[in-house]
Amino acid sequence: MSDLIVPPHTRTIVELGMGNGTVLEALAAKDPETVYIGIELDNDQYQQARSRIKLQNTFVIKGSFEEIVPKFPDSSIDGFIAVLPDPSYIDEKKEPSWAPFYRTVYAKLKRPGAFRLVTEITDELLQPVGNDAFDRWSIWLASAFRSIGFIVAGMKEGSPEEYSSRCLDQFRGDPERIRLITLDLAKA
Ligand SMILES: C[S@@+](CC[C@H](N)C(=O)[O-])C[C@H]1O[C@@H](n2cnc3c(N)ncnc32)[C@H](O)[C@@H]1O
User: Fold this and answer.
1) Are 96 and 146 in contact (CB under 8 A)?
2) Which of 22, 36, 84, 156 has the least C-beta neighbours within 10 A?
3) Pick from 160, 114, 117, 113: which is nearest to 138 by CA?
């Protein structure tokens, strides 16, 4: 990140695990005054984003967000986005291993700052997910982020209509077995 210098008064949004960067690109194109930074571990996905995105306000970084995010100064980022993080970063059973990373995300946010998380619940046997299971899971998810320090500013079933990504478009095709949620988390 040594060649990425963002002026202190510029708004900065960081996407964690951007895949091939279609969400990042669409958001950045509509918001030219804000700097958008996408982080992606997978070389192929990163290269697709890098060769396609030509916007002046968008930077893509190849690497692990667990290594890169701690390098941002504390209270320097206006917003984080995570669309369908891998299970290692959101699974209920793995909470003790991922919670410290989101504590770092919280520390890097300005006050006020926002973290938009789009994630999904599936059944272990790939059966449709009932409302009871969905509600129980969404309550757990909100409480996990509250215990990190976030305020839950919004929680809605589904994903933002304006977001389109490889994984999201695929997941939307199976809405009974893959139920999506969008959590708008805030640092007030
Ligand atoms: C389920 S995919 C979602 C990708 C994209 N957000 C989308 O909606 O299409 C999860 C992405 O996170 C990336 N990823 C997983 N662990 C990561 C890490 N530690 N640092 C950066 N990217 C990571 C994966 O390579 C993958 O592209």
Assistant:
1) no
2) 156
3) 117
Note the pLDDT tens digit of each residue in 87-97: 999 999 999 99
Show the domains of the chain with their CATH numbers: 12-187 (3.40.50.150)
Q: What is the DSSP letter of 158?
A: S
Residues of the chain with pLDDT under 70: 1-3, 8
- Residue 71, number of CB atoms within 10 A of its CB: 11
Q: Is the CB of 167 under 6 A from ligand 1?
A: yes
**Terminal-to-terminal C-alpha distance of the chain:** 28
CA distance linking residue 65 with residue 151, whole number of Å: 22
Q: Is the pTM of this model over 0.90?
A: yes
Among candidates 174, 131, 180, 137, which has minimal Cα distance to 159?
180
Rounded to whole angstroms, the Cα distance separating 188 from 181 reads 22
Q: Select from 41, 45, 119 the residue to mutate for testing ligand 1; criterion: most ligand atoms less than 8 Å from CB.
A: 41
CB of 165 shorter than 6 A to ligand 1 = yes
